Amino acid sequence: MHRILADDLARLPQLLQSARDVAVREVTGLAERPVVRLDRAPDRAALPREGAGAEGALARFTEDWAPGFSGSAGPRYLGFVTGGATPASVAGDWLTGAYDQNVSGSGGSWAAALERETVAWLRELFGLGEEHSGAFVTGATVSNTVGLAVAREWLGERLGVDVSREGAAALGPVEVLSGSPHSSVAKALSVLGIGRDRLRPVPVLDGREAVDVDALETALAALEGRPAVVVANAGTVNTVDFDDLRAIAALKERYGFWLHVDAAFGGFAALSPAYAHLVDGLDAADSVCVDLHKWLNVPYDAAVQFTRRRDLQVRVFHNASPYLGPPTGEPDFLHLTPENSRRLRALPAWFSLVAYGRAGHREIVERSVDLAARLGEGVAALDGLRLLAPVRLNVVCFTLADDPTQTRVGALAEAVAASGEAFLTPTVYGGAPALRAAFSNWRTSRADGERVLAALASALPTLPD
Fold this sequence. Notes:
By secondary structure, this protein is α/β, with parallel strands linked by helices. The protein has helices at about 5-10, 10-30, 55-65, 85-100, 110-125, 140-160, 165, 185-190, 215-220, 245-250, 310-315, 345-380, 405-420, 445-460; strands at about 135, 175-180, 200, 230-235, 255-260, 285-290, 305, 385, 395-400, 425-430, 430-440. Helix 2 (about 10-30) packs parallel to helix 3 (about 55-65), helix 6 (about 140-160) crosses helix 11 and helix 12 (about 345-380) crosses helix 14 (about 445-460).
C-alpha cells in the first residue's frame, strides 16, 4: 500500500473528525454566509505529482474552494426549486459513502432491499397504489427519461414493434402532447430518439399553465386512433399550476395514450390535506416523476420514478450478460434504470423518512407554502413590483411593475444576488421577463422571507432607467 494511503488509513478516525468539524462549521454558519458567490473562481491548478494526504487535501479545499461555494443548502436560496439537506439525510449521505454499496443487484447485501422499502414508503406518501413499482434515479430529468422510455416501449407494443430491439425509428412519427412541459421532457425525447419536435403543445386555460382538457381531447381525437403519449403536470415550474389529472385520465377510456405525470415537486402536495386535491388522479398515471432533492430535502442527486408497467421497463433497461443474471422474479435495479453501477441514493431518504415521518415532511411543505404566500403578499404591496400569477403553492412569480425589460429584470436578480441575501432565478411568463422565488428548504423561516423582501426593496432603486 502506498505510504500516504497507509497513513490515512491509520489516522482515519482523526481524518473523519476533521471533515466533520469543517462540515459542522459550514452548516451552522449557512444562514449567514452569502447565498451565492459571483466573483471569479481560482485558476486551475496542475495535477499534484505527490499527494498531500487527506488532511492536506482538506486544508487545500477549505482554503481555496470552500469560500466560493454557494449557500444553496441554506434558507434564502430560492432559485430553481432547490431543497436543502435535513440533518438526518446528511447523516444518511455520509454513511452512503462509508458503506459504498453498489445497488445494481441484491446479491450479497441488503442494500437493494432497503431501496425497495424506501420506494414503497414514497409510493404510499404520494398516494400511489401497489401496482406502481419504482426505483431511485439521479434527478427529475432521468426520472422523466425513464418514464418516457417505458412509454416508448408501450407505443411499440400497441403498434406491433419491439422498440428495444428495432429502435425508435421503427415506430414512425410519435405524438407527445402536453400543455406546459418542463424543458427536461424535450431533452428526454431527444435522448430517446423520439425527437424534440415531436412534443406537441396543447392550449392551456386562460391565464393558466394548466392544459385545457377539451383542447387535449380534440388533439387526441385528431390522431384517429393512433396511440400517443400525454405528459401532464403536477406543479409547473413557473407558477406551480396543476393539470386536472383525473379528467385527463378519464380520456383514456376513449383514446389510446400513455399518461406520464411530471410531479417533480408538485407531487409533495399530497402530504397536506389542504393541497392533496391538486394531485387527485396521480394514481391513474402510467408513469410518474418525483424529484427528492427538492421538497424531500435530501442531498443531490436523488429522484424516484414509478410505473405501472415494470415488464416494459425491464424490456428497455435489462442488461443481458451472464455475470449479471436474468431479470426474473423481483428484477435487480440494473434492469430498471439506465445505470448498472448505482449509488445507494435511497439511504439519505430512508434516514429522513424514519427521522421525521409523514408529519415532519408535511410541516416542511405547509411552512413553505405559507412563506411563499407571505412573500407574494409582500411583492404585491411593494411599489415597483407586481405578481404575474397567483401564488398557488410554493413559487412566487413576479416582475417589475414598470418597464420589465430583460435587462432591468436581470439587473434586479443580480443586485439581490450581489447583496448576499438571496438568490432568485429568471424566467419568462406570459411574454414578460420575470423572477421566481421557490420555497422548499427545510430551514427557511418567516424571518428569512422578510430578509428576501427587504433585499428586493433595497435593490429596486439601483436599477437602470
